[in-house]
Specification:
Strand order of the largest sheet: 3-4-5-6-9-10-11-14
Domain Luciferase-like: 35-359
Keywords: Flavoprotein, FMN, Monooxygenase, Oxidoreductase
EC number: 1.-.-.-
InterPro entries: Luciferase-like_dom, Luciferase-like_sf, SsuD_RutA_monooxygenase
Order of helices and strands: EEHEHEHEHEHHEEEHEHEEHHHHEHEH
Number of domains: 1
Number of strands: 14
CATH architecture: Alpha-Beta Barrel
Oligomer: single chain
Shape: globular
GO molecular function: oxidoreductase activity
Length: 396
Amino acid sequence: MSAVLDRAGGILPRSPSSFPDSPLSRALQQPLLLGLFLPIQAGGWSASRLPRSTTWTFDYNRALTQRAEEFGFDLVFGLSQWLPKGGYGGVLDGTALDSFISVGALAAVTRRILLISTVHVLYGPWHPLHFAKYTATLDHISGGRSGVNIVTGHRAVEHEAFGWPRIDHDRRYELAAEFVDVVQRLWAAEENLSYEGARWSLREAFVTPKPLFGRPILVNATGSDAGIDFAARHSDIVFITSPAGSEIESALDALPAHVARVKAAARAQGREIRTLINPIIVSRDTTAETAAYHDAIVAHADPEAPAGFGRFDSDAHAWRGRAGRDGPAQRALGGNIQIIGTPDEVARYIARLKEAGIDGIQVSFFDFQPDLEHFGTRILPLLERAGLRFPAPENA
């Protein structure tokens, strides 16, 4: 049976990383995980009006995913947002595909790459039984390549859109843990399951088919104590944020201690967890070309988006203090951290992230199609030469 016992004696499924032939295990053979943060929302992450190809449409994101797979990327990832009309304003106008549906649909047009969608589990239509059934179905459609980024929602406006008041930060993680525990029991259960909890209940519930490799990949993004504890107990991968802002040197100074804290929390639970961080990469072949590209992005900064960010109350711990560290130029470009340089410089910064304890990068770009092509043809070979990546499989 593809399951283990939790501390309370409940049956939970094993992580897909414990199966040597699972897609996740194959990806983890790489020295550094490589992901693409898909722009399924208007504007991607950059509040700039400089003309570009980037768009939220499914066709555009499908083409990006297929090209990333050809380059040997391990995963793609899509965020989820529920914003009022107009979003943050300007180019970040709130138009966005649903992450679970759009990223899941990519299973039909890819063969190897892992597909990670995002779901806010504490509001909207989700019940653990829905979630367990839908994700197990997608797990079979994708051949075990699917995963879910479990988020609890940090903006009051998103909770309120569904008719819920925003729940206290740490309480959200308690409820998310209940949700995930119930879902995992449904994935593992060989008989009907009944459950009465703080927020959800089931009576004689059962899910088929069972996931292919214990369970789908579980992910979360966090920087708080409660979120790190949740990740340590449940997640295979955790997206972390630089505590020191987006400037790369400051981030590299702060990340070793932060990464060590996250991994120590997981080891205290008898588990190993992988860390991913999201750099936005601005690169051209020469220093002058790179500077010109970066300066053009910043020169076309959208004046509406910064005010839009401030309109929506957030209690996310991971981004606290960044407004004071990141100036207008950083906000125009966006990204968790920013890597700006020639291919050689970008490769060296990525190597330093690995030295800081990062297990993988989830890259994003300003102009996704041409910038992905530049990354794949000019930067990726340097990462392979440095021993950070193995070449793409021939059948990718």
